[in-house]
Amino acid sequence: NAGVTQTPKFQVLKTGQSMTLQCAQDMNHEYMSWYRQDPGMGLRLIHYSVGAGITDQGEVPNGYNVSRSTTEDFPLRLLSAAPSQTSVYFCASRPGLDWGYNEQFFGPGTRLTVL
Amino acid sequence: AQSVTQPDIHITVSEGASLELRCNYSYGATPYLFWYVQSPGQGLQLLLKYFSGDTLVQGIKGFEAEFKRSQSSFNLRKPSVHWSDAAEYFCAVDKAAGNKLTFGGGTRVLVKP
């Protein structure tokens, strides 16, 4: 298993540009989520999904969109990038709650800079 | 709303010395508690978790944590630190059937030779 994969590893955008951060998992996990990591603030939940076709907002959803058309993929879209979105983004997944609460598996992260 | 506080932003410890990282949480019901470690440039790896039962939890890499409900704390300890333990450590909390893991701000550990 590759686990949780994220692409790209690094990205530089100009203010106003749009882009999609890709996340995929091959563990058949129902739950997937996106976090952003900023110095001194730990990781903050952006959006999450409990299964294909179901998404919900986390703590800091503004400026980001998500969709979940398949179990494997959970892309994060920045519609109009702003410097405040400069951060490291982590995708994570875990089995659904029917299996009891399990640990989340994190991807390697995407470092995004918005100029 | 649930929250997590890690009071120490940085800790410097000598190799071979003991390490204790503090974590305090705020949550009304029974929390699910976690400690993650992040090595430089890497993703997060789970060290240990507490759901219920014995309040002293053993994890990987020789780490342990103790859940103290009366103090709303879940402190992480290691008796003897190795240079490879230099990393950033995050405490996190969620509720029993939750989907919103909340992280503390992290503690960066530096290990002196």
Question: Keyphrases for this structure?
Answer:
heterodimer; A: 115 residues; mainly beta; seven-stranded mixed β-sheet; four-stranded antiparallel β-sheet; B: 113 residues; 0% helix; globular
Please explain how this structure is put together.
Chain A is mainly beta and 115 residues long. Chain A has no helices and 11 strands. The model of chain A has no long low-confidence stretch (mean pLDDT 92). In chain B, strands 2, 5, 6, 10, 11 and 12 form a 6-stranded mixed β-sheet that branches. A 4-stranded antiparallel β-sheet of chain B has the order 3-9-8-7, with no helix packed on it. Chain B has a two-stranded antiparallel sheet with strand order 1-4. Chain B is globular, with a radius of gyration of 13 Å. Chain A binds chain B through residues 4, 31, 33, 35, 40-45, 48, 50, 56, 58-59, 90, 92, 97, 101, 103-104, 106-109, and chain B through 4, 6, 9, 32, 34, 36, 42-46, 49, 51, 90, 92, 94, 96-106.
Count of individual beta strands of chain B: 12
Q: Unreliable stretches of chain B, pLDDT < 50, 5 or more residues?
A: none
Strand content of chain A: over 45%
Global shape of chain A:
globular
How would you sum up the major sheet of chain A?
A: 7 strands, mixed
Look at the structure and give the mean pLDDT of chain A: 92
Q: What helical percentage do the residues of chain A reach? A: under 10%
> How far do the termini of chain A sit from each other?
36 Å
Counting H and I runs of at least 4 residues, what is the number of helices of chain B?
Answer: 0
DSSP summary, beta strand count of chain A = 11
Distance between the termini of chain B: 41 Å
Q: How does the SSE layout of this entry go?
A:
The complex is a heterodimer of chains A (115) and B (113).
Chain A (H helix, E strand, L loop, with lengths): L3 E4 L2 E4 L5 E7 L5 E7 L5 E9 L2 E4 L6 E3 L9 E3 L8 E8 L10 E2 L3 E5 L1
Parallel strand pairs in A: 2-11
Antiparallel strand pairs in A: 1-3, 3-8, 4-5, 4-9, 5-6, 7-8, 9-10, 9-11
Chain B lengths: L2 E3 L4 E5 L4 E3 L2 E3 L4 E8 L5 E7 L5 E3 L5 E5 L4 E6 L8 E9 L6 E2 L3 E6 L1
Parallel strand pairs in B: 2-12
Antiparallel strand pairs in B: 1-4, 3-9, 5-6, 5-10, 7-8, 8-9, 10-11, 10-12
